[in-house]
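Discrete fold record:
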Amino acid sequence: MSITLRIWLTVALIVMIFAVLVLYIVPNQQEKYFMRTFNKEVENLARTVALGSQIALEEQNFKGVTMAMDFAKADERLEFVALIETQGELKEGQIEGNQIMTYPPDYPLNINRKSSDSLIVKHAQFSTADMDGDVIVGFRTDEILKNMNRIRRIAIMVSLLVFAIGILLGLWLANTISKPVREIRDAALKVGRGDLTQHVGEKSKDELGELSRAFNKMVEDLAKAEERIHEKNKALLDAMEKLANTEGLGYVDKKISDDKPEDDQA
């Protein structure tokens, strides 16, 4: 596997992990946090209305009950709020009772309605000397859903931005890392074929720069070694040539000396 491919795979893996975090994990965690916070807020509001209603009923101040319910009406997310006179004990989450006050007045209330994705329903029970009661509030979650959709849109834009940055980063890494390595590889192949004039760039000060400098030093040493070998071979050839000439002259002198007596005898 080439270095360029490894770089691209690494960058792609990092981008994919970030995309999963941004597009899935973070929005889901945000949604859970918003829903948990909103549930607590609605539950506290129901308890506040129940407490105000209890105090007002104990004082037989029905206007105070209305004021307690007005505390919930001020919230634009309110779907309904109701004051119920319960009858008997709760059984498996089911209640029975009569509606004393409901807002909006014509709201089709189901006192055993459960929470859903679009609505959070909370109960807050209270008790006075004259009655047992239950305050039921329902709040819409459309604002949370709008916030989550906005967060998801932002997450998509951030993921696209990270994807673009990942491509640019991959190109930069491939050019910064793989290009010098390819240059060294190509130069090494030429050196292997006997070309000792190769030289690679040494601009960077990192490990690749050190590798380039080491390669250039190796090529220079090889060129110097080849030059020394060439000089020694030349000197050896010259010595052998001189030796051959010297032996040749000695042979001629010997031949002449051997031929002289024959001439004298003649």
